[in-house]
Amino acid sequence: MPTAIAVTSADLVLPPPDAHTPTAHVLTPPDRQPLDDALAETHLLTERHGYVVVLYPSSAPAAFVRRLHTVRSVLESDRIALLETDLPPLATGVLVRQLRRLSVCDFSPGVLAAASRLLAHYIYAGALLNSVARLDRVPVSLTAHARSWVPGSQFAVLARPTPQLVRIGGDGLLAGPEFATELTVATGPLSADWVTGTLAPHWRVGGLHRAPLPEDSARWWGTGKLTEFAAAIPDISVLYQLVSSVRREECHWCGLELIGDRCAFCSAPAAPPGGTGGPRALPAAPDPAGRRALAPGRTR
Question: What is 4-119's CATH number?
Answer without folding.
Answer: 3.40.50.10170
